[in-house]
Design goal:
binds pyridoxal-5'-phosphate, Aspartate Aminotransferase, domain 1, Aspartate Aminotransferase, domain 2
Length: about 375
């Protein structure tokens, strides 16, 4: 064994000893809220394909059309070779969907956050950053790349944020607040109206990650930022979850997008998304505004799931979306429950530290519009039987 492999094996052994070694298992997303895994079909409560668009024929057809017209690769970074009218039109479509002046497409949500945050702060020297304690790892990556210290406020605790803004933020030349509109692991929502008011009051910029709200919440599925116009100056979201494809956007003012085009490393130095992916995004944006029935069904399913977990005496936190945690606590117990559910035909992945704080290991249950009420009832029955 090479020295490198020996070192890697030792590092993996440490992870395994802590019971945290992860492996990739063969799986394929299916229509109907199902997933094929290890050769079995499971009812899938773990994917983020909330609206079923990942297997929608219109997205596949548009992906094929764009591929037939433009090939499989985009060839270069958009700044080097230029950009097609179709991509500019697609960005205008995203901006209109979000009710913003302009939008920029990134290769992924992780990349959008990791590139946008340092670019933003490069234009605001000395800015103080205030981040909700539960923001996504990609925003932390952006802060780390920018070499920025952050003041963390307790999750969704706006009184704590206000105290920090009035104290630590007072003397900074600029202030930025980072939050998610729907939190990915808890399914609770941020109060964007109040956050927007706080930001205005303290002359701060509000940055909102709408990865889990885009397509699902807000008017026509345009996200919670669209329900609170003017609250956030910078809105990021992904096409990889409810929109059934891949890639991400940042939306805001024309000046913001012009600056990111110049300064966001993950945009400047990365190849543009391939035509197939852009075509799928285009089709998803055509479909999403019309999916009010699917969104209403998701609300009904999540209400049903929360009520059922309450009856079982399980902590489901402050969930107010299609993401519903069933907090178990200890890692071992959570893993055992997920394994027992798997045996009964349900994929309900255990989420544990470091993704969530120690002692809050949980099943992160994500509803899909293709689920029936019966699927939710069956899951609840299985949870009751397995505990
Ligand atoms: C999934 C996720 C991202 C990353 O998006 P990808 O397109 O999967 O890279 C960013 N932020 C949040 C809150 C997410 O849940």
């Amino acid at each position: 064994m090479s020295t490198l492999d020996a070192q890697l094996q030792a590092a993996l052994a440490t992870v395994a000893q802590a019971g945290r070694r992860r492996v990739l298992r063969p799986a394929a997303l299916l229509a109907g809220g199902r997933i094929a895994r290890d050769g079995r079909v499971l009812v899938d409560f773990s994917s983020n394909d909330y609206l079923g668009l990942a297997t929608h024929p219109l997205l596949a057809e548009r992906a094929r059309e764009w591929t037939a017209r433009h090939g499989t690769g985009s060839g270069a970074s958009r700044l080097v070779t230029g950009t097609s009218d179709e991509v500019l039109a697609l960005e205008a479509k995203v901006a209109a969907f979000k009710g913003c002046e302009a939008a920029l497409i990134f290769a992924s949500g992780w990349q959008a956050n990791a590139a946008t945050i340092p670019a933003l702060l490069a234009a605001m020297p000395g800015a103080a950053v205030f981040a909700d304690r539960l923001i996504h790892a990609s925003m932390h990556a952006g802060l780390a790349i920018g070499g920025l210290r952050q003041h963390r406020f307790r999750h969704n605790d706006l009184a704590h944020l206000e105290a920090l803004l009035a104290g630590k933020g007072r003397d900074a030349p600029a202030r930025v607040i980072l939050t998610e509109s729907v939190f990915s692991m808890d399914g609770d929502v941020a109060d964007l109206d109040r956050l927007g008011a706080l930001a205005r009051q303290h002359d701060a910029v509000l940055f909102v990650d709408e990865a889990h709200a885009t397509g699902v919440l807000g008017p026509r599925g345009a996200g919670l930022s669209a329900a609170s116009p003017g609250a956030a100056q910078i809105v990021m979201g992904t096409f990889s979850k409810a929109l059934g494809g891949f890639g991400a956007y940042v939306a805001g003012s024309r000046a913001l997008i012009d600056w990111l085009t110049n300064a966001a490393s993950g945009f400047v130095f990365s190849t543009a998304l391939p035509p197939a992916v852009l075509g799928a995004i285009d089709a998803a944006l055509d479909l999403v505004p019309s999916l009010d029935a699917e969104r209403a069904h998701l609300v009904a399913l999540s209400d049903r799931l929360r009520a059922g977990l309450d009856r079982l005496g399980l902590d489901r936190g402050a969930s107010a979306s299609q993401i519903v945690p069933a907090v178990i606590g200890p890692e071992e117990q959570t893993l055992a429950l997920a394994a027992a559910l798997d045996e009964r035909g349900f994929l309900a992945a255990a989420i544990r530290p470091p993704t969530v704080p120690p002692g809050t290991s949980r099943l992160r249950l994500a509803l899909r519009a293709a689920h029936s009420e019966g699927d939710v009832d069956d899951l609840l029955e299985a949870i009751a039987a397995c505990r």
